[in-house]
Amino acid sequence: MITDPPPRGAKRRAEFTKSEGITRIPLPAPEPTRAATQQLALAMTSGEKTPVRSACLALLGELARFYQVPVPESLEGVAVRSSTVWRIAA
User: Based on the number of CB atoms within 10 Å of its own CB, is 79 exposed (0-12), middle (13-18) or buried (19 or more)?
Assistant: First the structure.
């Protein structure tokens, strides 16, 4: 299994451990997210950041409603993940 390294702080380590224990996550029905994913696919072919950002926010909004979490206001802080790979024996 590939995962992030465990955090050092006690509070974050407890959250990490709880998260690592999740073995299943429900997925939304395809219809509510279909338009948003199609919009994102189309936007990505444009090569322009603004349409991709808008499409990502639309998809995030759909997913946030499904998972009953706050809708993100922006994509600030979302970036390409580090190429560092951590391997944890299962």
Answer: exposed
Residue (of 62, 72, 57) closest to 28 by Cα position: 62
Q: What is the pLDDT of residues 31-78, one digit of tens each?
A: 889 999 999 999 999 888 899 988 988 898 899 999 999 887 766 666
Structure tokens at 2: 């590939």
- Per DSSP (E only), the strands in the chain are none
Structure tokens that stand for 55 in this block:
């499409």
Which among 24, 59, 62 is positioned nearest to 41, based on CA atoms? 59
The rounded Cα 76 to chain-centroid distance in angstroms is 13
Query: Could you tell me which residues come within 8 angstroms of residue 9 by beta carbon, excluding any fewer than 6 positions away?
Result: none
| All residues at 6 or more sequence positions from 88 whose CB lies less than 8 Å from its CB, including other chains | 1, 2, 3
